[in-house]
Amino acid sequence: MAKVHTPEKLRDLLLEVIVGAAGGDEANWRKALGEVEKLPIAFNAQSNWAVHPTGTKAQRAIAKAVDLVREQHRYVAS
Q: How far apart are CA 56 and CA 54, in angstroms?
């Protein structure tokens, strides 16, 4: 079973995947990614977190990273 991360740790993991796959400056990706939002589990039993990236190019790269990470980390802790 996968470890349950805090939103901050999950954001770091997402950034590691994005920078590793797409390259570029981590600070720019951090800005494009935004924060990991913890959602009430009652609204979506599949996962309790979301991100709201900015920028068209960034959204594509981030969406792929989110799909990969969500497979192993469906939930975030408080």
A: 7
